[in-house]
Write a structure and sequence with these properties.
The protein has 316 residues and is of the alpha/beta class. The chain has two domains: 2-139, Rossmann fold (3-Layer(aba) Sandwich); 143-311, Lactate dehydrogenase/glycoside hydrolase, family 4, C-terminal (L-2-Hydroxyisocaproate Dehydrogenase, Chain A, domain 2), CATH 3.90.110.10. The protein is 46% helix and 19% strand. The chain has nine helices and 16 strands. The protein has helices at residues 10-21, 35-46, 85-106, 119-130, 143-157, 190-196, 203-224, 229-243, 288-315, and strands spanning 2-6, 27-31, 56-59, 70-73, 111-114, 137-139, 164-165, 168-169, 177-178, 184-185, 188-189, 248-250, 253-259, 262-268, 271-274, 277-281. The strands form five sheets. Strands 3-2-1-4-5-6 form a six-stranded parallel β-sheet. Strands 7-10-11 form a three-stranded antiparallel β-sheet. Helix 4 (119-130) links the parallel strand 5 and strand 6. Helix 3 packs across helix 9. The protein is globular. 45% of the residues are buried. The structure holds nicotinamide-adenine-dinucleotide (NAD). The site of nicotinamide-adenine-dinucleotide has 29 residues, from helix 1 and helix 3.
Length: 316
């Protein structure tokens, strides 16, 4: 598999490292506005590659994306003090306007994998700017949040996170929805398993897990300035599902004609991922309050993505 990565910052370089060390990509091209940074990261990672798999990583230009199976877009501005979310959105739309058409020109058949924040909204912007079919524009969505949820459930229940099937849906952000009502491990509902192992999900335990899933990014950023290993693992997993045509179910973000009464919105739902990108979306069974929360989350994304798409049209 050949993967292009736009943005060789913390997320881009950690993702390149994960792709190379896990042997998911045979060829990786790193592109950054700061060419020296891209070259340095590519060189550093290339020196680790012989300890893993026979693969090639290099810094390059858009021309080098020809034939890429997936192009991951991590280039994005971070919020500055005093800046609103919409101001940030404006800057990121401008960055995407300079990136997405270049990718579409050189690699018209690639799958776009969007992770720059706000990720759901930038996925909608990427669809608009690329003109690609919706199946080939994937947002990393709540794949990472789902992993955080499963990790904490696993610790609590004494079961490996890999054996837990529980999902985080909606926005990759503050309004995300942790689905407690139908998660299971070994065909046993997680709430029931918690009772069996004598560690019931009291409202305090649930609140603690919810807080940790929803706010761990803030905690990590406070401690070291950025989050990147978790998202690198998630992006690598999505690429692996595409490369192996796995039909794996992952909570990526994609464009839906309708979610909970909200039209034309990018939201994370359990999604079947394979060689063509998005093969199918599965709408899970939810409790009444989870339906309500998902609707709220979709409405929140919709409000901002309409503004972002309007910015693209204005700038054209
Ligand atoms: P960073 O500042 O370390 O890296 C961004 C890189 O993009 C920089 O190297 C910069 O030179 C480059 N860049 C900026 N404009 C460019 C352009 N027009 N063309 C090419 N390169 C350009 O930031 P980071 O920590 O790597 O985060 C990147 C993005 O990923 C941010 O938007 C961040 O919020 C987001 N993020 C998302 C998730 C998620 O789960 N979706 C998790 C972590 C970070």
């Amino acid at each position: 598999m050949k993967v292009g990565i736009i943005g060789a910052g913390s997320v881009g370089s950690a993702t390149a490292f994960a792709l190379v060390m896990r042997g998911v990509a045979r060829k990786v091209v790193l592109i950054d506005a700061n060419e020296k940074k891209a070259q340095a990261e590519a060189m550093d990672i290339a020196h680790a590659a012989p300890f893993a798999y026979a693969n090639k990583i290099k810094a390059g230009t858009y021309q080098d994306l020809e034939g890429a199976d997936v192009v991951i877009v991590t280039a994005g501005a971070n919020q500055k003090p005093g800046e609103t979310r919409i101001d940030l959105l404006g800057r990121n739309v401008k960055i995407f306007e300079s990136i997405i058409p270049e990718i579409a020109k050189v690699a018209p058949n690639t799958i776009l994998l969007i992770t720059a924040n706000p990720a759901d909204i930038m996925t909608e912007v990427a669809i608009k700017l690329s003109g690609f079919p919706k199946e080939r524009v994937i947002g990393s969505g709540t794949v990472l949040d789902t992993s955080r949820f499963r990790t904490l459930l696993g610790y609590h229940l004494g079961v490996s996170p890999q054996s837990i099937h529980a999902y985080v849906l909606g926005e990759h952000g503050d309004s995300e929805v942790l689905v407690w009502s139908n998660g299971d491990a070994g065909s046993v509902q997680i709430e029931e398993l918690a009772r069996v192992v004598n560690k019931p999900f009291t409202s305090e335990v649930k609140a603690q897990i919810d807080d940790c899933v929803r706010n761990s990014a803030y905690q990590i950023i406070e401690g070291k300035g950025a989050t990147y290993y978790g998202i690198a693992g998630a992006l690598c997993r999505i690429c692996q599902a595409i490369s192996n045509n796995e039909y794996a179910i992952l909570t990526v973000s994609s464009h839906h004609e309708e979610v909970e009464g909200v039209n034309d919105v990018c939201v994370s739902l359990p999604t079947v991922i394979g060689k063509r990108g998005i093969h199918k979306v599965i709408f899970p069974r939810l409790s009444e309050s989870e339906h309500r929360d998902l609707r709220f989350s979709a409405e929140k994304i919709k409000e901002y993505s309409d503004q972002a798409v309007a910015m693209v049209s204005q700038n054209k």
